[in-house]
Amino acid sequence: MRTPAERVALLVAPVLEVASLPAAGRLIDVGSGNGSPGLVLALVREDLEVTLLEPRSRRWAFLREAARAAGRPDVRVLRCRHDTYDGPPARTVTLRALALPIGALAPLVEPGGRVFFFGGRPGPHAAFAATEEAAGLPGGIQVFRRLG
Question: Which residues pair with 115 in a beta bridge?
Answer without folding.
Answer: 93, 144
